[in-house]
Structure of Mitochondrial ATP synthase g subunit family protein:
Amino acid sequence: MASKIPQLQSKVNQASQIVAKNGASYYKLLLEQNKHYIQDPPTIEKCQSLANQLFYTRLASIPLRYNSFWKELDHAKNMVKNWQDLNRENVGFAALFGLECFAWFWGGEIVGRGFTFTGYHV
């Protein structure tokens, strides 16, 4: 593992040189391609107005998301009631979803412990 550190450092160095060389042109290209999203002039009042629009738009979407949640829950309840009708594909999706939830939980636990596996810093 320690022998790979110089190789990793050289790759990181190469990547940072590419970003330093091409970063400004990429930034300009990105702004040019998305200029229709940019508010002119960029004032504090306009930013506050956009923030309020986003907040209240998301607030207004809560009932739709709430109804969608209950529909999904009813569908899941029906699948559990009729478990004999499930095919391999549905069972596979459920197993993958459970595995993904477990992996995210496990990863979060590791991050919460400061990227340690057993409590000792590696």
In short: The chain has a mean pLDDT of 87. The first helix runs from residue 5 to 33.
